[in-house]
Amino acid sequence: MLKINKNINLTGYSTIGEVQVVYLNASISTDGTSNANKSTTILNQDLYNKNKVEIRKDILEFSTEVYKVEDEIITGGTI
């Protein structure tokens, strides 16, 4: 028996200047039965170390967006 799962994927980058420093990814099930699978990949360790405060703000902002989508799914599109 085939079971198909639908997901919403969010991606983002934290950049310093024009350089991508961190890649952010989240996959959220549209049936609301599980939490998002999130990953953070540091692409440039040196720039990350030198700009942690700014980059961590971007990571937090990305997580907030993921939570918004999760909440919209659970409430049927309204928060």
What does this 3D model show about the protein?
With 79 residues, the protein is α+β, with helices and mostly antiparallel strands. It has helices at 45-50, 52-75; strands at residues 7-16, 19-29, 37-42. The chain has a three-stranded antiparallel sheet. The longest helix has 24 residues, at 52-75.
Structural class: alpha+beta
* Mean of pLDDT: 93
Helical element count? 2
Beta-strand fraction estimate:
25-35%
Computed over alpha carbons, the radius of gyration is 15 Å
- Poorly predicted runs are none
Tell me about the largest β-sheet.
Answer: 3 strands, antiparallel
* Rough outline: elongated
The separation of the N and C termini measures 35 Å
The largest sheet has its strands arranged as: 1-2-3
Please describe the topology of this protein.
Blueprint: E1 7-16, E2 19-29, E3 37-42, H1 45-50, H2 52-75
Antiparallel strand pairs: 1-2, 2-3
Question: Which key terms come to mind for this protein?
Answer:
single chain; 79 residues; 3-stranded antiparallel beta sheet; 38% helix
Put the structure in a nutshell.
Helices cover 38% and strands 34% of the residues. A hairpin with a 7-residue loop joins strand 2 and strand 3 (37-42).
